[in-house]
Amino acid sequence: MPHAADDSLSLTLPDESATLNLGARLAAVLRPGMTVYLSGDLGAGKTTLVRGLLRSLGFRGRVKSPTYTLVELYEVSSLNLYHFDLYRFADPVEWAEAGFREYFNAGSICLVEWPEKAAGLLPEPDLALRLSWAGEGRQAELVAYTEAGRRCIASLKTA
User: Fold this and answer.
1) Which residues of 103-115 are buried (b: 16+ CB within 10 A; e: fewer)?
2) Its family (predicted)?
3) Using CA atoms, how far apart are residues 12 and 40, in angstroms rounded to an integer?
């Protein structure tokens, strides 16, 4: 489905620093209750982007991809931020048994890597961000799916 110009944003990220900076910019515009899908090949920078976001919110601990645990909780700025990595996710029963659905609520932000692995189980994203290789750097494509996502993109365009 095509998106209106105010529903999307394309950015060139020439290096890791630019990816971290985009994460920091996202930290400034995301609000509790939002879900963000993070897509891209292995090594495209999804966890780097999350690290930049968390650092901007004041988190100083280790930020790692939760590939084996499926989710990491970060409590920062009186906010619960859930970082999902569904690369190894294979069993929908595990989703229900782990109570993951409950993490998607008005008081938390959920960042989901590899959302296609849990198709049909996840809520619609407010914002979808795809990172792809562009020479030595990356290309970031952001698409809003909700009004909250459109506000984020509008804020990113004016920042």
Assistant:
1) bbeeebbbbbbbb
2) Belongs to the TsaE family.
3) 14
Backbone phi and psi for residue 146, each to the nearest 5 degrees, phi listed first: -135, 170
CA atoms of 79 and 87, how far apart (whole Å)? 25
Quote the pTM value: 0.91
Residue 113 has pLDDT above 70, yes or no: yes
Q: Which helix (H) or strand (E) is 97 found in, with range? A: helix 92-98
What are the domain boundaries of the chain? 5-118+127-158
E strand segments, the chain = 8-13, 35-39, 71-76, 79-85, 108-113, 127-134, 137-144
The per-residue pLDDT for 5 is 55
Would you call 65 exposed, middle or buried from its count of C-beta atoms within 10 A (0-12, 13-18, 19+)?
A: middle
Tokens of 129: 């961000």
